[in-house]
Design brief:
The complex is a heterotrimer of chains A (436), B (594) and C (258).
Chain A (H helix, E strand, L loop, with lengths): L4 H12 L9 H28 L14 H12 L2 H11 L9 H22 L8 H4 L6 H25 L8 H12 L1 H24 L11 E2 L2 E2 H29 L6 H36 L4 H4 L8 H19 L1 H4 L2 H28 L15 H24 L5 H12 L11
Antiparallel strand pairs in A: 1-2
Helix pairs in contact in A: 2-16, 3-5, 3-15, 4-5, 4-9, 4-10, 5-7, 5-16, 7-8, 7-9, 9-10, 10-11, 10-15, 11-13, 11-15, 13-15
Chain B lengths: L4 H15 L4 H8 L18 E7 L8 E7 L2 E7 L12 H4 L16 H14 L5 E6 L5 H12 L3 E4 L6 E3 L6 E5 L10 H7 L4 E5 L5 H5 L2 E3 L6 H8 L5 H8 L3 H12 L3 E5 L9 H4 L7 E3 L15 E2 L9 E7 L9 H4 L3 E11 L11 E4 L8 E3 L8 E6 L12 H9 L6 H12 L3 E3 L6 E3 L5 H9 L3 E4 L25 E5 L27 E4 L1 H6 L7 E6 L2 E9 L7 E4 L3 H7 L4 E6 L1
Parallel strand pairs in B: 4-5, 4-13, 5-12, 7-8, 7-10, 8-9, 13-14, 14-15, 21-25, 22-24
Antiparallel strand pairs in B: 1-2, 2-3, 6-11, 16-17, 17-20, 18-19, 18-20, 21-26, 22-25, 23-24, 23-26
Chain C lengths: L2 H5 L5 E6 L8 H9 L19 E6 L9 E6 L9 H5 L5 E3 L6 E3 L9 H5 L5 E3 L26 E3 L4 H13 L13 H5 L5 E5 L6 H6 L4 E2 L11 E4 L3 H4 L16
Parallel strand pairs in C: 1-10
Antiparallel strand pairs in C: 1-8, 2-3, 4-5, 6-7, 9-10
Classes of the chains: A mainly alpha (436), B alpha/beta (594), C alpha+beta (258).
Chain lengths: 436, 594, 258
């Protein structure tokens, strides 16, 4: 009997899944995809409203010219730094353990960056003029630098993603794909180097965006030559939180897929790297904050204490950013006894990510909420549903791309080994079918 | 070279590479930016011949001189005329965007003219003995006001009603001390240009509960308790002691003493928010009559017009006797609260209003007829409260009415059976015949004695923004000044005293006023009230929150602003017809959260 | 720029504003909107989305009634002369300082609408077009032909009525003169001010009223310590008014939340 359409779909689906890996049935996969697809559609509608009717659909205004989108863009780019940093650590510094997560990191990086760029396209008032930055660049502007580097880096990410796609079981059957992928793999060190260089600059420039604002003493910092201290602090924090985010997402995928995808040693390695960088970052940030409070800000006529006199942004936010979500997770991740427990690891990683998100929030939202003129009020801002919807579209897009990548591509090279080891150890027990 | 495919490709490829070295493709790329510059739907300003035209503004009795920049005859911007001796080049925010008014989206665009004429004619025929036909003229003192008076004289039992006009003028330039009881001297009083030109000569003492714009720029602001102005005036006039006034008004004795001394030594003038307020009688005690408070002089009239109906105030009209009421609301001016008008109307009264706004009497009248809006109509401007001497100015129209309108003067003249005429021309001729005074030209500001100008040139210059003035002759003291006695504010149980903010009058406001109201909170919009923080707190009202303004006459939905410059016990309201209907003359109110 | 232009001494146009004369009438705001074809915004617009190239703020001395005193402060683009914040940050070079006049010019046609310049400006003098311009039917006939209306999605700000500068230059060129007549170049707000609080002129010309006003002891500029060298000089005899030039101090404010 010839297979019916549903059966045919399932057969085709199975052919794309790598040998030796177990994934959930087609039906269950579709069930997982459906709500995210619906969310994507809703989010696209919200974004379409903003594009068609104009930015009056958001709750941004002349005082809150940057809102939810910029804050989330900056956060997401910082979290996606895991892509370049893991590549740097693996291919340049030769930390081989990270080979287990590099593919996943690249996909996450791709998703984060492409999502951020998509949101930026909606955020600007004239998206069709985006090419002006390339045509009339302003060499003094940090935003020009950000635009160039992010565009180039997104291209690099696509190129890094290609091999992962082309190594798919079915696609490998096309000879030209196989050859292309092989050739591309030779470039991997070049790509990693270029990616690191570009990322270094745009992560820094995103910090520089705020550090150069002479008109906003809350954000303004002194620095080295044309680069304010926030340039370096953003690089450090992004590098610190990149591995944490990889750790977090890998753990999450493991939990959702109900499989072991990497060896525990990888987690610990990621945590050590993240903890170390986070500790360095906290130190640098503390020094920078002290300089800012005692010299930079007072010289502009703005006393630092007054920034924290406006409710609800009291000094608790400074404490939370540096100590609670900075020093604490760093210490946890650096302590071997605590590192041994996945629970502590994941909590610390999550707190580190929150810390970076809080830092980006402080730089984007608090800067704009604080008055600069003495007759200005303190301002508050709540995003509209269109803004939230647009961002949810990015989240849905990310989950969908990652889900497809996890299902059809070999994101975790150690997965098969681990599965075989587990099967060998538990030959009596029936193999558990994973959810995906 | 043989024509093979390869050679062709080489040629094309080489050509393309070479073209990249020319400016052409790069210019084309930059030109694509034009696509993103202006999409269809963005209006393009019309181009054309640019000319200047001169006229006068009719949005308030000041009648400031206006220079209009016109493109193909369409006014695109208005400015003052700097060398003008009356307005000194000043225009207020309403006057600056006056040329937008004809296109106001809320303008009354049509009305049942034929039905109104028929209804009026029928009512005039069918009215019983003693029933009146009345015209309510909200901007008396114009030439058309004389048309109404003549019309009402021609009709049996015709009645000409107008809000009381002060019989005096204020000579600000002659004053060294100005004591103002809430008069908005720097926010719409008199002729702004004249006030600011004279600013350097006088010391201003502003006496009012709320710190207004005038109080902010005054030399002294006395924040008195609301309702105690009479006590203050009594002390300044020497009728009571300063200590007594200090006790009642809450102002320090030293301050009151300083004001009294300044007012007594040197020419002084007392102003009040309401020109007919009894507080003005303080001027007599300060010997201001004939010095800073002088007789109001009107420009000459044709003799035939003097047999016109007298001016009657609404309060003096007999109750229930008006069968036909024609209201001229075509120019923003005084507003008589409807509660004062309604008792005077007979049963089946026919009320016709000539207006451009739906916010005023259009809410009450049966027939709403569209009137021309500034700068569509030919009008003349009488003397403002601070105009000393006789003046005659014509506001020449800058464009034809953009909607079908009814000219109120013509309508009334028609129903009264007056012969067709051009009253403005007749008036101008009468002034010219009087043979005195000088004619001021527009751009050059050159002044020519009226005697040396022909009647035609006189008329022509007046229609081109010129101005006739005669300020020769000794300043006369005003005749008997009558004031409306201020009774006790009724309805004491309502907690808040109503104080009107300066600036806004009735009528259409240019749409660009959104810049001052919604888009910047600089001025109070018509639906706004201001409360002190204490009163707002005790009523649970937030800044920008909706609430209800309640008086004995009704209630209105308003938006509250919390203003620490408003004392407890006072609610400051934006002036306007709806508020006037609700609050009348300074009564009391309550504000509750909506 | 021709060689002739370059040889002319560069001007530094600025304003002096007498806060003791400003009565907050708003005539300057209306004249600016009329001159620069700024439409009235839809009902949904409030004071945080309004486009008001010049905006008059009401400031007070933070004392309770009856010691409270108010003043009115017109704020427009301060035409910063040093380290101009918006010029440095625009990714497309849509903002530049004109060396001949000192005016900070904004090119709406080049603007991407990223709003970075609005974040950078400490004086909040830059405005974004959240809506497309829409005038009531028929009112488009009253548009000024010398200024192009902008579509939505671009930033705009005061440019000292640059169109009037060009018209003055054309007039001077037509008359064969090399310098414009100062009386020919007056921005709309200064022309409209009925109290004479606003004055405009060349700060480089020591004989101009504006340059002399700037030297007076009661003269101040907003947020001077930021080092932006604004060209708008305010003055007031009242000490508490001069305090508004400094950074915000939340102490003593009855509303610490907007």
């Amino acid at each position: 009997m010839l297979p019916g359409p549903k059966e045919r779909m399932r057969l085709v689906d199975k052919e794309f899944i790598a040998r030796g890996l177990r994934r959930s049935s087609t039906g269950r996969f579709l069930l997982w995809i459906l709500p995210w697809a619906a969310l994507l559609v809703f989010g696209l509608y919200a974004a379409a409203l903003c594009l068609v009717k104009g930015l009056n659909q958001t709750n941004m205004d002349n005082r809150f010219a940057f809102g939810l989108w910029i804050f989330l863009d900056l956060t997401v780019i910082a979290l996606g730094a895991g892509a370049f940093f893991t590549g740097f650590l693996l291919y340049i510094l030769k930390i081989d353990e990270l080979r287990a997560v590099i593919n996943s990191a690249v996909v996450i990086g791709l998703v984060c960056y492409s999502g951020a760029v998509a949101v930026l396209a909606v955020d600007v008032g004239q998206p069709l003029r985006a090419w002006f930055t390339f045509w009339y660049p302003n060499v003094h502007s940090m935003l020009t630098e950000v635009t160039f580097c992010i565009t180039c880096y997104l291209t690099v990410l696509f190129i890094e993603y290609l091999p992962i796609v082309l190594r798919n079981r079915k696609l490998r059957e096309v000879p030209s794909f196989l050859v292309f992928e092989h050739e591309l793999h030779k470039l991997i060190y070049v790509l990693a180097g270029v990616g690191t260089f570009l990322s270094f600059f745009h992560q820094g420039s995103l910090g520089g965006l705020y550090g150069v604002l002479r008109g906003r003493p809350f954000a303004f910092r002194e620095g080295l030559a044309v680069w304010p201290s926030t340039f370096f602090l953003f690089i450090l924090s992004a590098a610190a939180v990149g591995p944490s985010f990889i750790l977090l997402t890998t753990w999450l995928v493991e939990k959702l897929a109900r499989k072991q995808l990497v060896r525990p040693a990888v987690f610990r390695r990621l945590a050590r790297i993240s903890g170390l960088l986070l500790a360095v970052y906290v130190l640098a940030k503390a020094v920078d904050t002290l300089v800012w409070i005692n010299r930079t800000s007072p010289e502009t006529g703005f006393q630092a204490w007054q920034y924290y006199s406006w409710k609800p942004f009291g000094t608790w936010i400074l404490f939370a950013e540096i100590v609670l979500f900075g020093l604490l997770p760093a210490l946890v991740m650096l302590t071997p006894r605590l590192r041994a427990h996945t629970g502590w690891l994941v909590t610390a990683a999550a707190m580190a990510c929150c810390g970076v998100a809080l830092n980006r929030f402080v730089m984007t939202v608090q800067t704009l909420a604080l008055p600069t003129l003495s007759f200005d009020p303190f301002l508050s801002y709540i995003p509209s549903w269109q803004e939230v919807g647009t961002f949810l579209a990015v989240v849905a897009y990310g989950v969908l791309v990652y889900s497809f990548s996890f299902r059809y591509f070999n994101l975790f090279p150690e997965e098969r080994e681990l599965r075989l080891e587990a099967a060998a150890q538990q030959e009596e027990e029936p193999a558990l079918a994973g959810r995906y | 070279m043989t024509t093979t495919r390869r050679n062709l490709l080489k040629f094309v490829g080489g050509g393309a590479a070479g073209a990249l070295l020319t400016p052409a493709p790069w210019r084309l790329i930059t030109d694509t930016a034009l696509w993103s510059e202006n999409w269809p739907g963005i209006p393009r300003p019309a181009r054309g011949e640019i000319r200047a035209r001169f006229t006068h503004c009719t949005l308030c009795p000041a009648g400031c001189a206006v220079r209009a920049r016109c493109v193909n005859g369409q006014p695109v911007s208005l400015t003052g005329v700097k060398p003008h001796p009356i307005s000194h080049g000043a225009l207020c925010p309403w006057g600056i965007a006056g040329h937008h008014l004809p296109y106001h989206p809320a303008r009354v665009r049509q009305g049942p003219v034929k039905e109104a004429l028929a209804a009026v004619a029928r009512a005039m025929d069918q009215r019983s003995a003693g029933e009146r036909v009345a015209v309510l003229d909200l901007r008396p003192g114009r030439t058309v006001s004389w048309t109404y008076r003549r019309a009402m004289a021609a009709i049996e039992n015709g009645l000409y009603l107008a809000p009381r006009q002060p019989a005096y003028s204020i000579d600000l330039a002659a004053a060294e001390t100005v004591v103002s009881f809430g008069a908005p001297l720097f926010d719409g009083w008199g002729t702004p240009g004249n006030v600011f030109a004279a600013r350097g000569n006088f010391r201003l003492v502003q006496i009012e509960p709320v710190e207004s714009r005038t109080a902010a720029l005054a030399d002294m602001w006395l924040p008195i308790r609301p309702g105690t102005e009479t006590a203050m005036a009594a002390a300044l006039g020497g009728e009571t002691t300063i200590a007594e006034a200090a006790r009642l008004t809450g102002v320090g004795e030293e301050a009151i003493g300083a004001v009294k001394e300044a007012a007594e030594n040197g020419p002084a003038v007392v102003l009040a928010a309401d020109p007919s307020s009894p507080l003005m009688s303080l001027n007599a005690k300060l010997r201001a009559l004939g010095r800073t408070v002088v007789a109001r002089r009107e420009a000459p009239l044709p003799e035939a017009w003097k047999k016109a109906a007298p001016v009657t105030e609404m309060a003096a009209a007999p109750d229930g006797a008006i069968r036909v009421l024609l209201i001229d609301e075509s120019l923003p001016g005084g507003y008589v609260p409807w509660q004062e008008i309604e008792p005077k109307l007979a049963a089946n009264a026919v009320v016709v209003v000539f207006t451009s706004t739906t916010e005023g009497y259009a809410r009450h009248a049966r027939y709403v007829l569209p009137s021309p809006v500034y700068p569509e109509a030919a009008e003349d401007i009488g003397p403002a409260i601070d105009t000393v001497g006789e003046v005659f100015r014509i506001a020449a129209p800058l464009l034809a009415p953009v909607v079908p309108v009814v000219n109120p003067g013509e309508f009334v003249a028609r129903i009264a059976g007056l012969p067709q005429s051009d009253p403005l021309r007749e008036r101008a001729d009468a002034i010219h015949q009087a043979g005195r005074g000088a004619l001021l030209g527009y751009a050059d500001g050159k002044s020519t004695p009226a005697k040396e100008v022909t009647a035609d040139n006189f008329w022509k210059t007046l229609n081109q923004g010129g101005c006739w003035m005669d300020d020769t002759g000794k300043k006369a003291a005003p005749g008997k000044l009558e004031f409306i006695a201020a009774g006790e504010p009724p309805h004491d149980e309502l907690p808040l005293m109503v104080v009107a903010a300066g600036g806004r009058r009735g009528g259409l406001a240019p749409p660009l006023m959104s810049k001052l109201e919604r888009e910047s909170n600089l001025r109070m919009a018509a639906n706004r009230v201001a409360l002190s923080p204490a009163d707002a707190r005790s009523n649970g009202i937030e800044n920008g929150g909706r609430c209800l303004l309640e008086t004995a006459c009704g209630r209105l939905s308003v938006v509250a602003t919390i203003d620490a410059g408003v004392p407890a016990g006072v609610v400051e309201v934006a002036a306007g017809p709806r508020i006037a209907d609700l609050c009348g003359a300074s009564p009391r109110a309550r504000v509750v959260r909506a | 720029m021709t060689a002739q232009n370059q040889n002319r001494r560069a001007k530094r146009y600025g304003m002096s504003i007498d806060i003791d004369k400003c009565n907050g009438c708003g005539a300057c705001m209306m004249a600016c909107a009329v001159e620069n074809n700024i439409p009235p915004l839809p009902e949904a617009a409030n004071d945080r989305r309004g486009v008001t190239w010049i905006r008059v703020y009401k400031v007070d001395n933070h004392r309770p009634y009856p010691e409270r005193r108010i003043a009115f402060v017109p704020v427009l683009c301060q035409q910063c002369g040093h380290d101009t914040p918006c010029v440095h940050v625009c990714p497309q070079q849509a903002v530049e300082v004109d060396p001949a006049t000192g005016i900070v010019g904004q090119m709406p046609e080049r603007c991407l609408g990223c709003r970075y310049c609005m974040v950078a400006c400490p004086y909040h003098a830059r405005y974004f077009n959240w809506w497309d311009p829409k005038w009531p039917a028929g009112m488009e006939k009253t548009l000024n032909p010398d200024v192009a209306p902008r579509m939505r999605g671009v930033v705009e700000k005061c440019n000292f009525c640059h169109g009037r500068w060009h018209a003055a230059q054309q007039k001077a060129a037509a008359a064969g003169k090399s310098e414009i007549d100062p009386a020919d170049y007056v921005p709309a707000c200064v022309e409209a001010c009925p109290t004479g609080a606003l004055r405009f002129g060349d700060l480089n010309d020591s004989s101009s009223q504006v340059a002399q006003d700037a030297e007076r002891p009661e003269s101040f500029r907003l947020l001077e310590k930021l080092g932006t060298e604004p060209k708008i000089h305010y003055r007031s005899q009242r000490g508490w008014v001069r305090e508004i030039a400094n950074a915000p101090r939340p102490e003593g404010k009855d509303e610490a939340r907007g």
